[in-house]
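W.,

You were right to be curious about this one. When I first looked at the sequence I had no strong expectations either way, so I just let the prediction run and decided to look at it fresh. Below is the sequence, 254 residues in total, followed by the output.
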Amino acid sequence: MSEPVWNEFLTDRDKAVFEASGYGARGGFGKRPALLVIDVNYAFCGDKPEPILESIKRWRNSCGEDAWPAVAAIRSLIDKAHAKGLPVIYTTGVRREDNWDAGSWGWKNSRGGEKPKVPVSNIDGNEIVPEIAPAPQDIVILKQKPSGFFGTNMASYLQLLGCDSVIVTGTTTSGCVRATVLDAFSLNFRVALAEEGCFDRSQASHAINLCDMNAKYADVVKTAEVLSFFDTLPSGMFDLPKGAPKAEAKAVNY
């Protein structure tokens, strides 16, 4: 088995502390999971696979080339979830046209007022990339802050579905993914992350945040293990929506 992606960033002291303190025990999957896809939109993926320093010239929040292998992993999880009738819940951002509701997002980024510059295109940064576009039975939650739970109906939808657990994917690992994981953990859901289905603009932040979440809040597992887990679940457990997802609002996401 390959070593965790975070091992190269840990000192010998760190490894000894985790082992001695008992952190990192396996929490286990739940019985009624939902698949969460956090902010996998043009703002964070760019409009095409390309090196991150090229992509951020036009999409300042882009994670560049690291986004696209993750999109493929997420696609495999979505397909399996659909085949089993499991809930798939997406998040993406929403913002007023005048950007007034950006609020605290404007405090920590010098390019916060920019809109993406994409030649011959009117792509909205909050639009979920078409490679994993929501299906009619999927749920799309619009949010304005990092966590998929903050100021949204996420918790009430999970309760309505009777979910006891979430499988989290998306971006950024250190930001919106982590915030969503902490809130899910705080609400006593069992939480797992599909490692290959998460990505970040910073490789170090990606690795260390996976390490920290695996230590305390979630199980970081390979995508293949999640797919195998889905195979063990009975089909048709959930009463899912029947109609089309609500159209996403045009806005600039952070």
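Here's what jumped out at me. The helical segments are 12-21, 42-45, 52-55, 67-84, 154-161, 173-186, 203-216, 223-232. And, maybe more interesting for your project: The chain has one domain: 7-232.

Coffee later to discuss?

I.
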